[in-house]
Amino acid sequence: MGQLMTPRKRMMRLLLALIALAAASPQTHAQEALALFRADGNADDSSGNGNHGTPLGGPSYAPGLSGQAFEFDGRGQSVKTAIDTHPANRPSMTWSAWILPRKIGAKRQILSSDNGDYKRSLLLLENRFAVFTGGSLWETSETAEPGDWQPVA
Which one of 40, 41, 65, 70 is most buried, counting C-beta atoms within 10 A? Predict the structure, then answer.
C-alpha cells in the first residue's frame, strides 16, 4: 500500500497540491500515470485510473497553488492509497508534488510508501530535500524555503 503523508513527530504545517504518481511500464518503459490528486476537497484520483485515496487523521483543505491543497499539521494525518509501490512490481516510479512548507526543521515526510518490507520516501531533512529507497538515503543540495510553493519530484 502506498501512503502520502506528513510525519507524526513535531508540529509542521505542510500543504500538498497536485500530487502525481507515475511508473514506467516494464514493456515500453514509457511513463504511465498511476494517480493524480488535485486535493479539491477530496482525495479522488483525477487520472482516470480509480486509485482514489482515503484521508486518515483528518487532513484539511486549504487554498493551493491552483485550486485546493491537502493541509497536514504533522500529527499523523495522511492520505492512503492502494497503489502497490513495491520495487518488484514497480521498479521505476516518479512521484511529484507542489509543496508549501510553513516551517522546516527535523525530518519531515512529504510522500512515502511502506508496504511492510520496503520503504520509499521523499522527505525534508532539516531544510534539504532527500530521497530514501529501502536501505539508501540520498540527500540533495536543494533546500526548501518556508512560505514558498516549490515543485518536488
Answer: 70
